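Please produce the structure of this protein holding uridine-5'-diphosphate.
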Amino acid sequence: MFQNNKHRIALISVDGDPAIEIGQEEAGGQNVYVRQVGYALAKLGWQVDMLTRRSSPQQAAIVQHSPNCRTIRLKAGPAEFIGRDNLFEHLPEFIQEFQQFQQHQGFGYSLIHTNYWLSSWVGMELKKLQPLIQVHTYHSLGAVKYRSIGDVPVIAAQRLAVEKACLETVDCVVATSPQEQKHMRVLVSSKGKIEMIPCGTDTDKFGEAQRSVAREKLGIAPDAKIVLYVGRFDRRKGIETLVRAVAKSSFRNEANFQLVIGGGSRPHQSDGIERDRIASIVTQLGLENCTTFAGRLDDTVLPLYYAAADVCVVPSHYEPFGLVAIEAMASKTPVVASNVGGLQFTVVPEVTGLLVPPKNEVAFAGAIDRIITSPTWRDQLGEAAQQRTEIAFSWYSVAFRLTQLYTHFLAQTASNNRPQIAA
Ligand code: UDP
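Below is the modeled complex.
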């Protein structure tokens, strides 16, 4: 067999490739989390392999991000985009490839950190085949998600069973907010170990640009009033609520008022269909003149959009964490968010932004107006928001806490494997 290397760890994210462009269908917070956690853990001295599936023949099999951090793409089904709900049947192939990869490399991972329920199943199966410590982050819980959608997919029962088995059997589950932790306990299982370690954000990248400079670079007027949305086009994101709220805002007829909707979409795919639906609501409400669909915002412009905005709105129906909220906060932009999930943890009402009931367009309109009306208050909220992210949500502190967790389990395994001295 192969040798175990205790500083080499695998972040497994079958469906969320950490090396691809973010901001389109099914590429969002999970991809960012795996990538940033991987980078930060590597800086702390771990040898990090981030394993995902190959979703296009053009993709490199291995992407070396830094000497200690790489993305490895394994075969799991045809090399094309496959929606999460249809991936389960390809997971046995991923497991086989994972084992072959270890054989070729001549080592075996002693710790894996799996992401999303599909990878949790991969991890639990691998655990039957080799000694392993498994840490898991859900990113989304079926038990919560299926409460709020009408058309529950065929895979739902399988997902719920895997999520329960995962919580009850893996070494540790990482909840990214106290709200997610509570949902796990109430809706998934009372058994199993949970540690709360939040998501992070790049506090250098976000927060670098001043509002006036960002506006100049983006060609936005200095006196414009900008309401920003950033994220995927998905019904769960509640973009419709935001558009309807903007229609009710007392600023809507002012010439310098603008709604900017940032996020990628592909024609005829589910995100493209949602974008078209949102665009038709914009038209129905007569908001075309004050609404811009900015498309996918990459790293070169995303920090500028956050900095340029007066307020960033996160109108999700549910959010286990919600990276966009802390990215805006790190950029000194207050957040108006739905009073749900991880947003209740990141946004401090009246201090770093405002929380309002989800799907309540009147409440969103009122909150947006309150912030836009007072630039002084907007700036106070922005300052406090930035401070909060620096203290609580840096990737470095996330990686540091994960390191403590991993080290604890590795040390425990090492002491269990030590030969016992007879009394
Ligand atoms: N994002 C991006 N460009 C876009 C839209 C989104 O880079 O055009 C990123 C955004 O900055 C954030 C992630 O996608 O890091 C979305 O994460 P979040 O947790 O808010 O939502 P999820 O996609 O996980 O539901």
